[in-house]
Design goal:
globular; 20-stranded antiparallel beta sheet
């Protein structure tokens, strides 16, 4: 079905830039970049999938069944996203909040052209209908002038960010969340707020580069579907499948970085030992263990790492790793459905938390806190969590980013707001040039 060629690349970092620039000519683009972040579970340093041969685009209704059918029929590489609002297909829930981005709830495509980069080795996988273009495409990519590409004319004015809710309203809503927690309706919930700009435009590629340079995360994504874009600097993995092994790596717990090495070490130590941050993380670990158990061989759900602090360019994050062995004869899509959405973006208990979130938030989450990734022909998969991301609808001239945090019984509304601003810093800096 696919013709494969292999090439040695002398300068992978420069080649990645050329490759992503070259991909801009297509209407469907997914770029995944690990930024050479040192992690145990990883297949490639970077992946580019472009130009849909087939695709599926749908709202939430029976979306997982449609995806399962598409994945089984295609039996090929497919790339795409799952929006947060697929929760309505998993449970009897709804999404009635304001939506100005208008992304479909689910989109996947089978790329005609696929590039997989690991160290200096580039694998090129083209469908047979375009395999005669491999050599010419590689030559074109290798000789793209990055200087010329970077000097594209900017016709967009400076972006002015607005808030969906004021600080006072945010604090009031956090207090309402705390009432639910103290009453015993939930233990924890992820409460989010949207920042946006109307009648505004950006250069999606240059915006992505700027965002990625600030953060250098392991799950960076540039996604394009015609006039809709996702520019993501996500540090979080949602779910990965390697043969029968399932890996989930929830993040809960954030601390800022310091330029002073001793202060930075203290920030790591403080985060590692913070009872509130640890309890947030452990609650979500329990939720993920429960989710994985639905499709796991009995007794195989294990916590490989608990509350380990990982450092990124802008923040320290507390990450846990939960694994299981999936039951044979279960569809990979069913594993995703059983664990969706990612527990770190909902709360616990999950269904109650999602209902309360829907009532208190004012903007529809859409692709934010959903997942982007791919399935392989061998039915393995890897998906990130869509956080630290800018969403852009070029047709509507609408730019958006959403941030949130876990609210627990010990939450202080002022500190929660400060954490939101810390998480929003990179996106705001990129868009407003602050």
């Amino acid at each position: 079905m696919r013709i494969t060629q292999k090439y040695n690349v002398t300068d992978p970092s420069e080649f990645k830039n050329r490759l992503l620039h070259w991909g801009q000519q297509f209407g469907e683009v997914i770029w995944l970049d690990s930024n050479s972040y040192n992690q145990e579970y990883s297949s490639y340093d970077a992946v580019l999938a472009v130009d849909a041969f087939t695709s599926i685009k749908t709202d939430y209704y029976t979306a997982f069944e449609k995806l399962k059918e598409y994945q089984q029929q295609t039996k090929d590489w497919i790339f795409g996203y799952l929006s947060y609002d697929l929760k309505n297909d998993v449970e009897r829930l709804n999404s009635e909040n304001q939506d100005n981005l208008h992304f479909p709830d689910l989109f996947f495509f089978q790329p005609k052209k696929l590039f997989l980069l690991k160290n200096n080795l580039l694998e090129v996988h083209y469908l047979r209908m375009v395999d005669d273009e491999i050599e010419e495409d590689f030559k074109t990519i290798s000789t793209i002038s990055l200087e010329k590409a970077d000097n594209t004319e900017q016709s967009c004015d400076k972006v002015k960010i607005s808030l969906s809710i004021t600080k006072d309203v945010y604090k009031e809503k956090v207090n309402q969340m705390l009432v639910h927690i103290h009453r015993g309706d939930i233990y924890e919930a992820n409460f989010c707020q949207e920042f946006f700009a109307k009648d505004s435009c950006i250069d999606p590629l240059q915006t992505y580069y700027h965002l990625n340079d600030i953060s250098k995360p392991p799950f960076a994504t540039f996604f394009r579907m015609d006039d809709q874009y996702l520019l993501s600097a996500s540090p979080e993995r949602y779910l990965r499948k390697e043969d029968q092994k399932i890996i989930s790596q929830p993040i809960k717990g954030t601390a800022k970085r310091s330029d002073n090495i001793y202060d930075d070490q203290k920030l790591i130590s403080d985060l590692q030992n913070d009872p509130k941050e640890r309890s947030e993380n452990i609650m979500i670990v329990d939720l993920v263990r429960n989710d994985l158990s639905k499709t796991a061989v009995k007794g195989t759900v294990k916590v490989e790492e608990l509350c380990k602090v990982y450092s990124f360019k802008q923040v320290h994050q507390m990450i846990s790793t939960v694994v299981s062995e999936m039951e044979p004869d279960i569809s990979p899509v069913d594993v995703i459905k059983a664990t969706f959405p990612m527990g770190s973006m909902t709360g616990a208990p999950k269904i109650s938390a999602m209902k309360i979130i829907e009532n208190l938030e004012v903007s529809k989450r859409g692709l934010y806190s959903g997942a982007v990734g791919y399935f392989t022909p061998d039915e393995d998969f890897d998906f990130n969590v869509v956080i630290r991301s800018i969403l852009y609808n070029k047709k509507q001239n609408y730019i958006s980013y959403t941030v949130g945090g876990a609210i627990t019984a010990k939450s202080d509304p002022d500190k929660e707001y400060e954490e939101c601003l810390l998480k929003a810093k990179a996106m705001r800096e990129v868009l407003e040039g602050m």
